[in-house]
Design goal:
This protein is mainly α. The protein has 10 helices and no strands. It has one domain.
Length: about 250
């Protein structure tokens, strides 16, 4: 199982998309800094320490990016009837979980890259960044981990449900981006439709949105952790069941 995991990790990083995603991560870090600088030039600010902290606060909205990116590095489910020296004695559950764990490793690598690049670029553009700003950002990043694990799990669930990557991508983005935005739109003022308000509470997007605001009473860390675990378990179960129903040759 370990050999399979690291084989898939190597395979993922050998794709052209891996380099493209790394460039995009660097680009987003630069954009975050340039956006704060542009805002300051237009509206002005003479508050010491505000620039670097604003960059890191802005960056917390990018926490979902690692799991969104990961799905592009993997294909749909492997043919269960084709065995090699690595997969010969592996069950479909083991194959699925190995793919999932390899995706987590890849996602973690991109998160670390984003973190390091963000700190370096923010330090270059804004020397006012403090140790407190960094520690607060790290804290928020760690809180988001259960949610992005769930995001990776959703991605593999769809990759194992559909033979077509296009269908998997469409369903993944519909579930993680489009549908949540629609729900949040109708749950907000002036609509505040009760059904949407209720459903909004269980959205991963909603939980991601609460993470940057420490004083927000709706920022419930134990709930965020439990939410990530529950969604991860449910999506893995659905993905494994779907894989057992496949009979591709």
């Amino acid at each position: 199982m370990v050999k399979y995991i690291f084989r898939e990790v190597k395979k993922a990083f050998k794709t052209k998309m891996a380099a493209i995603l790394a460039i995009c991560v660097v680009g987003i870090c630069l954009i975050a800094n340039l956006a704060v600088m542009a805002f300051t030039l237009i509206y002005g600010s003479n508050i010491d320490g505000v620039l670097g902290s604003n960059v890191l606060a802005f960056a917390t909205w990018c926490f979902p990016i690692p799991y969104i990116a990961t799905i592009f590095l993997y294909g749909t489910y492997p043919d269960p009837h084709i065995k090699d020296s690595v997969t010969r004695n592996m069950s479909r559950t083991s194959v699925y979980l190995s793919e999932f764990f390899s995706g987590l490793i890849v996602s973690l690598v991109y998160m670390v890259i984003a973190f390091v690049v963000l700190l370096i670029t923010t330090r270059i553009f804004h020397s006012d960044i403090t140790a407190y700003d960094i520690s607060l950002f790290v804290q928020n990043m760690l809180i988001s981990v259960p949610l992005w694990i769930a995001g990776v799990s959703f991605g593999f669930m769809f990759l194992f449900i559909f033979e077509s990557k296009k269908k998997a991508y469409i369903c993944f983005f519909a579930l993680t981006l489009v549908i949540p935005r629609i729900i949040m739109f109708f749950a907000a003022e002036p609509f505040e439709i009760p059904v949407f308000v209720m459903v909004r509470k269980i959205l991963i997007s909603q939980s991601f949105g609460h993470i940057p605001y420490i004083a927000d009473p709706q920022r419930n860390v134990p709930y965020i952790i439990c939410q990530g675990i529950i969604y991860t378990v449910i999506s893995c179960i659905i993905g494994i069941i779907s894989y057992y129903k496949k009979d591709r040759r």
